[in-house]
Amino acid sequence: MKALYYLGDKTLELREVPEPVPGENEYLVKIEACGICGTDVSAMRAARDWQPFGHEIAGVVDAPGPGVSHLAPGMRVALESSSACGTCARCRNGRPGMCVGRAPNFWGQPSLGCAEFMNAPAICCVPYDGLDPVAASLAEPAGVALDMIHTADIGIGDSVCIAGPGPIALMALALAKHRGAARLACVGRPGNNARFDIARGLGAEVHDIAPESVARLKRAFDHLLVATPPSTLPRLLPMLSFGGRATYIGIGHGDATISFDADDFHFRKLQLRASHATPALYFPAALAFLANGVIPGERIVSHRVPLLEIQRAFDLLRDPANGAVKVVVTP
Predict the structure, then answer these.
(1) Tell me: domain 2-138+295-330, CATH 3.40.50.300, correct?
(2) Exposed site from 38, 226, 283, 308, fewest CB < 10 Å?
């Protein structure tokens, strides 16, 4: 079968590899769709050895391994990248999102989502129906967006600004609207108008993230949902109103250290919360929101690219002028 491997962000190799055999408590999954994550593209640059690619996965159960039988061949599943262990003290005390045990996951498999088949732990396979597999592949980033919304604790009537109009941020924008936010805004770099068009379609005002533009929004929002690099946080914090919350999922690739005025932070009673959706939670809710249109998956998926044309998928993402929002690879 074919499986994608990478060594750096510009060295891709579509290999012929043996079809995997499911092990204990695993299912063999036939891949139907795999989204390309922007964080993966950034992380690829640091790769020092060949790695398989893809973790936003929807597929079909092909065969069970020993010890599992609750999913039948032919059932469609979305794959959690990792699941709560269910046995550590935090899981048993009702806090699976804070699991510190050995969480089951599909990392380390010889093939991942950009392949024809892969193995996945049974607990990571979340069944669904009534949804196109390409849309179902959004369940993983939609779960990240849900985690950010829950972490922020957005309430009815709140004002919310999203920083960085990537797919996760756009899904969080849709969920904030669904949760009852009264004012929505999106700030980001100009260049990819397709992303801003989706934000406008969700009822958000759109602003440039340039300092002079952000300055005009001083103390305008109860919530900042930040999906931009750490370096942007100090200039975004002044946008928060008294008692406001910044909830952050951005990752720094070489620029993770920031500084800001701690006195201003203290006297305005601000909060900074970290959202990190590991283990991957909320898949059933994410799939339901995709199926009922709360999350507009058909708009967020801008391009579908066959696995044999994988280089084109990455080329689409590198240039904002291409208008890519979410690129999904299909076998």
Answers:
(1) no
(2) 308
Answer whether CATH 3.50.50.60 is correct for domain 151-274. Answer: no
Residue pLDDT, tens place only, 182-222: 999 999 998 889 999 999 999 999 999 999 989 999 999 99
Closest CA to 149 of 240, 239, 216, 247: 247
Buried b (16+ CB within 10 A) or exposed e, 216-243: ebeebbbbbbbbbbbebbeebbbbbbee
Cis check: omega of the bond before 279, within 30 degrees of 0: yes
180: tokens are: 């009852």
* CB contact set of 256 (below 8 Å; sequence gap of 6+): 230
Q: Where in the chain is the domain with CATH 3.40.50.720?
A: 151-274
Residues 6+ apart with CB under 8 A from 95: none
Please give the share of the chain, as a percent, with pLDDT higher than 90: 82
The tokens for 321 are 């002028």
Kindly report, as residue ranges, where domains of CATH 3.90.180.10 are found in the chain.
2-138+295-330
State how far the alpha carbon of 215 is from the alpha carbons of 148, 165, 220, 226, in Å. 25, 19, 10, 16
Positions of E strands within 181-227 = 183-188, 205-208, 221-226
Q: Of 162, 167, 223, which is closest to residue 188 (Cα–Cα)?
A: 162
pLDDT in tens, 64-78: 999 999 999 999 999
